[in-house]
Amino acid sequence: MPTVDRLLRRYCHCWALFLGLFMVLPGCDDLDDAADELLPSEKVLDQRDVYSVMNRYYYWYDQIPNLDPDDFSSVPEAFRACLWTTARGGLDKWSFILTLEEYEHWICDGEVDAFGATFVRYFNQVSGEHELRVGFVHQQSPMDDAGIERGYRLESINGIPVAHFLSGTASLEAQLLLSEGTFVFKDLSGQQVQRSLVRGTVHIHPADSWTVFTRAGRKTGYLMCTSFIVTPEEGQRMLSAFEYFDQQDIDDLIIDLRYNTGGDLNYARDFTGYFIPLESFDHVFLRLLYNDQVASEMNKVYYLKILQPALNLSRVVFITSSFTASASESVINGLLPHMEVIRVGTPTRGKPVGMNAFAIPRQVLELSAARWVLFPICFETRNRLHQGAYYDGLLPDISVQDDVLHPFGDQEACIRSALDYLETGEIPPSGAFKSTPADAGSFMTGFRATLGFY
């Protein structure tokens, strides 16, 4: 468990998770004593806390069924009964619940228990079939340590053929949530690769990699940004990327958000300060709009900052996919009124709403005594021009399929298309590329849908 000082420092960086304002900060100095408080076997009497929170703060509070909290045997059961989900004809595809331990591990440490890979539905234009391919592998994860690479085609997990996952007759998520599994892949040369893996701790590197491309005498910085969940150590790593771009005196910037499912809105706003035009300083970035019961006390406006090194660019290219969600979508939408924003790839997830976090039970004086942390949708976001409500996703200007058959670099279709645009200023005719259907993450639910990988 983190030390008290580390926790206090880290909470300063993570209080606005997924576009929200944390309500669980008091008593965080006692988190080290929380292990025995988790998941009690007996029925708890905290369900009324769930209804109190949801009926006041949930964005769609008027859609909560008229239920008796005492009818439910657990906090998670009561929480899920409140949600206005798509199964009930609603919009909520995102609200989830974590134990305190899971919350602390993820938010404070920037770590999760996982195999460490994102699987994407890939349309093979040669065979005309859909496949499951590895889109992204996190550094030093079990998948990475086993030598699994981007582009590997999944054949089976635990003996279940991938066709069953694609047809919906078997749950891919259920297999990926097991503590271990036997995976069969085919690599890019068509050779079979079998690995028996055990889930382990995966550390999230928001600034996964960066480089500079040179074309026609112009330098373009490229950053693979996988998350806005940022510890102080990872914040320094992100700073190093922009310091490198500054040293290289780049002319343009490509930010790859294909596998960025969101994070801390405060950090997402600060992130833009490295490259936005200097004249945008202190202009409106985003507006957070709560339900009519709490709007007067909780509505908030985020203003743009300038951070050093200030690259002062007039345009930026974002690469997107159906995994691009939440805070990463807010970065794109929030910058539209301030600079030229070009989107390359496929439509984003479509999450123009955000979450607050609430500890349950709420009566406790110390966070360590809480058992659960709720993450209900509590507000929507709008940019300076009040644009938002992109539930169908933000559409690309240049449609390009995620080219998982190539490693990230200037030979990969999305990056190559971005570089072509920056060199020529020309946008290919609509339909020049066949896009992947916007269902790459459709098999992911709850926290894993928010996280974006297993």
CATH superfamily assignment of the largest domain? Answer: 2-enoyl-CoA Hydratase, Chain A, domain 1
The CATH topology assignment of the largest domain is 2-enoyl-CoA Hydratase, Chain A, domain 1
CATH C-level class of the largest domain: Alpha Beta
Question: Which consecutive residue ranges, at least 5 long each, have pLDDT under 50?
Answer: 1-44, 432-440
Neighbour order of strands in the largest sheet = 10-11-12-15-16-21
Number of strands: 21
Count up the helices: 13
Your description of this structure?
- The structure is a single chain.
- This protein has 454 residues and is α+β, with helices and mostly antiparallel strands.
- The chain has three domains: 108 residues, no CATH class; 85 residues, PDZ domain (Pdz3 Domain, Roll); 205 residues, 2-enoyl-CoA Hydratase, Chain A, domain 1, CATH 3.90.226.10.
- The protein contains 13 helices and 21 strands.
